[in-house]
Structures are given as structure tokens and as C-alpha cells.
């Protein structure tokens, strides 16, 4: 990877992200763009993706594609991590 980060590099990190590795990937993206000015377009893009990874860390999937299972489905209430990144579980207080 070159010294200059790209959208493709950020997307390559975010694309296969899972809840288990969301925070490690978030840290890697922060490291990629830390030298860029705060108003740089790529740094703003990275911030959006880091927010997605933060939500993913409290979820079970990004759920960007396909339909969702209904919460009325038998057994759903017993799955504590069945939350997509756009509606993560409440954070502990």
C-alpha cells in the first residue's frame, strides 16, 4: 500500500468487516488518515466509515444487502447480538 491513502484502501478495510474486528479496522483507518488535514475530503470519508465500524462493533452485521429477518421470527428474542449496524444494541452505561 502506498503512503497516500485512497478511498479504495478504506473500502478494502471496511468491506469485509465483522463486529469482532470492527474496532481494529477503525483504528487502522484512523492511522491511514491521521496525517491528512481535518477538512480533507478523504479524512471526512474515513470518519463516516469509522462511524459505521463503531456502530458495527455494537451489532451483528452491516446488513447492507439483502432482506432482514423479522423480529417476530421464533427465537429472535434469544439472540442478543441480532442487531444490524444501522440499529445497534444500546451501549452499556
Number of strands: 0
Q: Write the H/E string, N to C.
A: HHH
Put simply, the count of helices is: 3
Q: C-alpha Rg, in Å?
A: 15 Å
Measured as a percent range, the helix fraction is 25-40%
Q: Could you name the ranges where pLDDT drops below 50 across 5 or more consecutive residues?
A: none
- Rounded mean pLDDT score: 80
Strand content: under 5%
Largest sheet: none
- Cα(first) to Cα(last) distance is 39 Å
Overall SS class: mainly alpha
Instruction: Indicate the overall shape.
Output: elongated
Walk me through the structure.
This protein has helices spanning 7-14, 22-33, 41-56. The protein is mainly alpha-helical and 93 residues long. The chain is elongated and about 50 Å long. The model has no long low-confidence stretch (mean pLDDT 80).
